[in-house]
Amino acid sequence: MKRSSIILTLLFLILCLSSCKNQEKAVKQPNDNDIKVAQLVIDAATQRELGNLEKASSLYKEVIRFQPNNSLAYYQLAAIDFESKNIASAIEYNQKAIELSPKNHWYRTQLAEIYLLTNQTDKAAEQYREIIELQPEVTEYYSELVGIYVNANEINKAIEIANLLEKRQGINEYCSMLKYNIYKSQNQHEKAIKEIEILSKEYPSNVAYLSILAQYYLNNEKEEKALNLMKKVEEIDSNNVENIVALMEIYYKKGDMPSAEIYIDKLCRTTKMGFEEKNQIILGLYKAKVDEDIETLRNYIKHLETMLNMYPEEGRLWQFLSIGYMRTFRMDEAYQACKKAVEYGVRDMDLYKRYIITQQFRAEDEERIKTCDDAIKLYPRECIFYIVKGYSLVNLKEYEEAIETLEKGLKYAKQQSDYIDIYSNLAEAYYRIENKDKAFEYFEKALEKDTNNLMVLNNYAYYLCLENIELDKAEKMSKQTYDAQSYNITFADTYAWILFAKKDYQNAKMILDNFLSEQETWSETVKEHYQKILEALNQ
To answer: Quick one: angle between helices 505-513 and 489-501, nearest 10?
Structure first.
């Protein structure tokens, strides 16, 4: 569009808005003065757009100098002054614009907004009443006025306006919902629900109204009525999530678990909701039962597995599965779930702890070390990761690194078990690098924390025996472990070997004879010990 065309268009608008006295007359042809005004308006609008409010204001005032009855200029000056927080001036300019063009609803809307934002609600309401008379077909203005009255706690006036809308437009969804929300805001539930009942009769296929009614009946202990309405909703829209959740909760509350589980399964399979929200709803339903009742926990796991089909790469889902699998002793599955959760980005400390626990018999030492390294980067003050890494390094015969790792972990030890695990593993590592004194020192430290720790007692006794020192002490410690767990082949072997070292061959043989039926499961060390005992007895 050419510039001259823009000027003429704006000029036409200005002439239409500038003077209400002349509105009924034919639009005159633009003269030089009109063109000058049009140019000023363009420049003022440009300056305002650029944020130059002072310059824009000056230009609009120049428009008024040429056209004292230009309502549009007053309207824009009001807007600029309000933006500049010159409230009194803004109101004065806006009132002048309305005085010049009393039937312009935009002018009144702006003034109403200024009044509202300056807490002059009565004056704002007055303007909206005028606007409604000017624009009786625009429902939003009724809503604005209703909102003003509700906020001012003038409920009768709010109802009056809602009824006025209904009178002008007839019973319809908008009017009834307007009245419903008014009554609801005042806790007038019976009056509110009557409006919904009207709507449900007018629109019997509208599930929103049926759902509101159902919830109302449910809240008022009319469970069967609520259930019937929810069934209607289900017939109309079987995938309505809110209805599925409501039915699920009703049946669960009634103790009808088969029916409740059907709707939980439907919730799991819906595409209208993400995993986190579904999981929150299900856990909210089960509450403490998921921790206390094994059958509930199994049902929960089943639902998580159902959701896997939809969210196979959802790390949090795998995380919750890992918890469930561990609690139901499905350790292989727990290990895989932990692995998947980490793979898909979960970095929770407890997840890493579960992961290293499940790795014990399902992963190589290298994998456990990597897991611990990843965890230590995130949680450098968590002792357990140093313990497991140290233990794994000992298994790999990386004794120096194991010692370094375990000594770092010692700084973060808090519980008795932390100290025992670190001391016993340090003892093992030091023994392997032939620092026997240091090894036995750490065994003693471990026993200071717990004199009855069977594994520490066993290992300490065994290494004393290998060194052929303090055999009486070794025998006493080993007998303690054997008496506590006579079925444990490891403890039995240590005890037998110490007796062998003390030349008590007969009793040594008798100890291992108790395990002859399990001989095919013996380790090479146990087999070797038994053979030497037999040789000592010339058998």
So the answer is: 170
